[in-house]
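Hey L., structure's done. Input below.
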Amino acid sequence: MTQRDRIFSAPIEKMGDFTFDEKVAEVFPDMIQRSVPGYSNIISAIGMLAERFAKPSSNVYDLGCSLGAATLSMRRHINQENCQIIAVDNSPAMVERCKLHINAYRSDTPVTVVEADIRNMVIENASVVVLNFTLQFLTPDDRLTLLERIYDGLRPGGILILSEKYIFKNNEANELLIDLHHDFKRANGYSELEVSQKRSAIENVMKPDSIDTHKARFKSIGFSSYEVWFQCFNFGSMFAIK
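Output:
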């Protein structure tokens, strides 16, 4: 049974940076559902997109897989001969639990769970690559380098699915969308203290980009088409096709 997220429910005297440690891994399913608007829709659609774009004898990557929600969604939908999913995360606590989740479900599509830094992964013969709320935790220079390596490792016609939190250039619009996101969290049972402390813990480790910045990167790298396919408040998901 999923544990309730109470990590920030009591006052924290010295707030450190947010990390994907054992405490977060224990409550992550509850945390993500109550914190990210539209998360279930995104996970479901990742499976649908994977079904459409996965090719026989190719690799499918879930980079920053956490507990494997996107991996499991893709595995339920993919039905291609000799297609394998490679799920990668650098958090030992996440990888350990991800393996348990993957092994709990039988499927003809094999999954390999790897504990590694996604910046060091070799991407090759890929038909689908997923970055589900992962890129925003890398430095700007690392983001471009990783996306270039993904592009080089994608087959022609392959797809990158990129889910992120966004910032917006218009300050009034940006503040409204932030406020709506906080209202969403309050509606899901988070207190003012939890909303405030979580924001303080994560602001130094997660630096969102604008949608225009993402599109500019895709264009400069050489993707043939790219667009936002889902957005709820300041969260959303994009595709980029080689």
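Residues 171-187 form the longest helix (17 residues). The chain has eight helices and seven strands.

-- N.
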